[in-house]
Amino acid sequence: MLTRFDVGTVITMNDAGDIFRPGTVVYDETGIQYVGPPEGCRHHADQTVAIPEGIALPGLLNGHNHAAMSLMRGMADDSALFEWLSQHVWPLESRLTANDIYIGTLLAAAEMIHSGTVGFADMYFAMDAAAQAVKEAGLRAWLARGLVGSQDPDGQKLEEGVAFCQAWEGQAEGRIHTMLGPHAPYTCPPEYLARVARAAQDEGVGIHIHLSESQGEVDQIIASYGKSPIQLAYDTGIFASRTLIAHGVFISQEDLPWLKGLQGGVIACPVSNAKLGNGIMPYHLLADAGVAVGLGTDGAASTNSLDMFLEMKMMAWVQKLRGQRPDAFRARDALWAATRGTAAVLGHNGGLLAPGRPSDLIVLDGGQAHVTPEWDVLANVVYSATGADVRYVVVAGRMILQEGVITTFDEQAVLKLARERQANLAKR
Ligand SMILES: [Zn+2]
């Protein structure tokens, strides 16, 4: 079925930076059929949605998440990292059921859909339940079973991770992709990372791993192994497969040789890095070296919000701070990271509006006070808009948010279940 959106502005994020005003997008389940000025469109659509003040843009791609951790949003906030993990997060995680993961992932999906995210990369456990939630929500996802090598002496969890890839790759009409998820070099010894690297090669899947997130991690890995987390990952063979490096805050000039020719890239999580007091990732060092940089939120337990509009603002702010100049990172760079950048890290052909690309788009309400007037639409979208302005979300040609209402599942029922699960988890 051909659907046509006639909107005030279309931001394509194509290489030429085309913006059409007014603009038209026509798509079906197979892909985008037309993007351009309304008068140039020769397609006869089955349905037309006209939003004169709407701003259409590619759906945002959240490159790093632990979706089910939404159930822990705001838990023991502002405590020191190790205390937070050892006294709060880990004990609670040991009690989470597959049903909790399912509800937590649907809760995250509701928040992501409302704030314009069309796809996300996730690392957690009980991933069959997470994948089922993704399937029902209508999102895209790149899912990995998180692996803690120090808790996996016989490799059973790695086998589970591989079995998950075999069961779910390409499922949900091709919306679900799978990866292997070794948590980090401080939880996975080098021999374990090497086993994961071989398994990824055998399965032909990518790897999702936290690397160089904190100064403490870098110091510990250098003290233990005499090399940086990036070099350690390289030496264990991780980078032989497409690798999604989450955080990368402490990647240095000396790490660049190990990243040369890397398939994949680094996902910046600026809100998480600020809230945990870690630091600012070296965007220009990586971008100048040709490393793809995308954007992600991290889990809502550390970030509190899965709103990629907040993440875009924070990325721009911290990179301006790091560069000590306002043009060090611009609105367009932020939107690029949240669309094309994450797509490049994942090896996904979306992240832009162009014929033949996936039918993934969002439409914001551009008629509100906080985005009026319009001197520069990119500035309005990145610096003034919030996720709450998103009115329509289309994924794979299916309208999963329509006039601000989720069409794929009963959102209120999920919120009720999430409150009940939280009350239950808080009791013990
Ligand atoms: Zn994370």
Could you give a quick summary of the protein structure above?
The protein has 428 residues and is α/β, with parallel strands linked by helices. The chain folds into two domains: 3-59 and 351-396, Urease, subunit C, domain 1, CATH 2.30.40.10; 60-346, Alpha-Beta Barrel (TIM Barrel).
Give structural notes:
This protein has 15 helices and 17 strands. Helix 2 (98-114) packs parallel to helix 3 (127-137), helix 2 (98-114) packs across helix 15 and helix 13 crosses helix 14. It is globular and about 65 Å long. The chain starts with a strand and ends with a helix. The model has no long low-confidence stretch (mean pLDDT 97). Strand 1 (3-11) and strand 2 (19-20) form a beta hairpin. The strands form 2 sheets. Strands 1, 2, 3, 4, 5, 14, 15, 16 and 17 form a 9-stranded mixed β-sheet that branches. The chain has an 8-stranded parallel β-sheet with strand order 6-7-8-9-10-11-12-13. It has 2 domains: 3-59 and 351-396, Roll (Urease, subunit C, domain 1), CATH 2.30.40; 60-346, TIM Barrel, CATH 3.20.20. The protein is 38% helix and 24% strand. With 428 residues, it is of the alpha/beta class. Zinc ion binds next to loops.
The kinds of small molecule bound in this structure are: zinc ion
Q: What spatial form do the alpha-carbon principal axes imply?
A: globular
From the alpha-carbon coordinates, what is the Rg to the nearest angstrom?
21 Å
The CATH superfamily of the largest domain bears the name Metal-dependent hydrolases
Low-confidence stretches: none
Give the proportion of residues in helices: 25-40%
Output mean pLDDT. Answer: 97
Termini gap:
51 Å
Number of strands: 17
- Largest sheet, strands/sense/barrel: 9 strands, mixed
CATH architecture of the largest domain: Alpha-Beta Barrel
List the total number of helices.
Answer: 15
Question: How would you classify the helix and strand content by structural class?
Answer: alpha/beta
**CATH-defined fold name of the largest domain:** TIM Barrel
Strand content bin:
15-25%
- CATH class of the largest domain, named Alpha Beta
- Summed up, the domain count is 2
